[in-house]
């Protein structure tokens, strides 16, 4: 009886596109490991990401609206699951490696800060070398997880995570799927959140955009996936049609004008900046107050980097907790002395 992994290899050879990244052809890991008899390297990477601590923290990290009270607002975790689903759909439609696409998607935002992109902008101003969440996501899986040992992921997954942003250039078609899936996911669920929050109505979206993309999240995602399939099947590059790209860019510009840069969406950013700035300066001056794992990292990395590692790893509510613990006086019990 052939090993399960060997059967997967055979299926990939038979059914994958000539441009797909086949599991047996991985460039490997930085550190050699004993191979698994059942799972391919990309399947192992997926599992490692799902079971790591940074992945679990995504459930309490903001997407757009700070610490939303409603149960149905998007968090970094639900965004990540959206991206993984869309990336798998794209990979399946194009006969690419779904396992690789999913692993990249699940790890692409592990380095995101508390308070969403506001937190990223704040740390980018504070850190001497700047801060970019895609680079931090690589650092999370390469260094910070497993108490400083990292997850030792494959080259292809690391490349996809690093290059998932709009300006990135993934070296695999599966990474290209994730790059598109990320844009499709966030623009659609951010629009849904804005409607849910009462910031705008669906009817506010310009008609020339909905005429191309559709008037609901389901229609817009289907339009994007269909466009990628029609434009990319049998080709080495994954892309959407120019018409869909232009409509998507118009929707993104609309969201920046009506949601992302509005006083409503960024109303708490001044508070977040004050909070993260105070904590950044505090831990730079008091590195002994960092958790033990981060203190150990000081032996290998500059303190500015390690402080960024700690702060960016925080969830929204943990950042508030740490700030209160450091800077807010604790209550005083007066007992019965006034009686």
Produce a short descriptive summary.
With 339 residues, the chain is an all-alpha fold.
What does this structure look like?
This protein has 17 helices and no strands. With 339 residues, the chain is an all-alpha fold. It has a domain at 41-267: Hypothetical protein af1432, CATH 1.10.3210. Helix 4 packs antiparallel against helix 5 (98-107) and helix 9 (173-196) crosses helix 12. The model has no long low-confidence stretch (mean pLDDT 91).
How do the helices and strands line up, and which of them pair or pack?
Layout: H1 4-15, H2 41-50, H3 53-57, H4 76-93, H5 98-107, H6 116-126, H7 133-148, H8 155-162, H9 173-196, H10 207-213, H11 217-232, H12 242-260, H13 263-266, H14 269-285, H15 292-297, H16 303-313, H17 316-327
Helix pairs in contact: 2-5, 4-5, 4-9, 4-11, 5-8, 5-9, 6-14, 8-9, 9-11, 9-12, 10-12, 14-16, 14-17
């Amino acid at each position: 009886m052939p090993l399960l992994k060997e059967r997967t290899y055979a299926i990939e050879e038979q059914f994958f596109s000539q441009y797909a990244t086949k599991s047996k052809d991985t460039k490997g890991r930085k550190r050699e490991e004993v191979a698994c008899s059942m799972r391919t390297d990309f399947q192992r990477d997926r599992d490692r990401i799902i079971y790591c601590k940074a992945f679990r923290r995504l459930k309490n990290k903001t997407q757009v609206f700070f610490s939303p009270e409603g149960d149905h607002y998007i968090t970094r975790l639900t965004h990540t699951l959206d991206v993984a689903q869309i990336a798998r759909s794209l990979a399946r439609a194009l006969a690419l490696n779904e396992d690789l696409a999913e692993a990249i998607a699940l790890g692409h935002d592990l380095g995101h800060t508390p308070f969403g992109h506001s937190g990223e902008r704040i740390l980018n101003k504070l850190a001497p070398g700047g801060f970019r969440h895609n680079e931090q996501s690589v650092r999370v899986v390469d260094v910070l997880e497993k108490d400083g040992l990292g997850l030792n992921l494959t080259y292809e997954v690391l490349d996809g995570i690093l290059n998932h942003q709009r300006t990135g250039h993934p070296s695999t078609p599966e990474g290209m799927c994730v790059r598109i899936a990320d844009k499709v996911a966030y623009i659609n669920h951010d629009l849904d959140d804005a409607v849910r929050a009462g910031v705008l109505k669906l009817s506010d979206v310009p008609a020339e955009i909905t005429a191309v993309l559709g008037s609901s999240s389901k229609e817009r995602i289907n339009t994007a996936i269909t466009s990628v399939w029609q434009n990319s099947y049998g080709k080495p590059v994954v892309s959407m049609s120019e018409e869909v790209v232009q409509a998507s860019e118009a929707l993104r510009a609309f969201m920046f004008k009506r949601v992302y840069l509005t006083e409503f969406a960024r109303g708490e950013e001044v508070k977040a900046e004050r909070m993260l700035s105070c904590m950044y300066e505090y831990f730079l001056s008091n590195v002994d107050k960092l958790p033990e794992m981060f203190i150990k990292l000081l032996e290998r990395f500059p303190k500015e980097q390690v402080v960024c590692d700690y702060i960016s790893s925080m969830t929204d509510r943990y950042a508030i907790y740490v700030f209160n613990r450091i800077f807010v006086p604790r209550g005083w019990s007066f007992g019965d002395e006034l009686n």
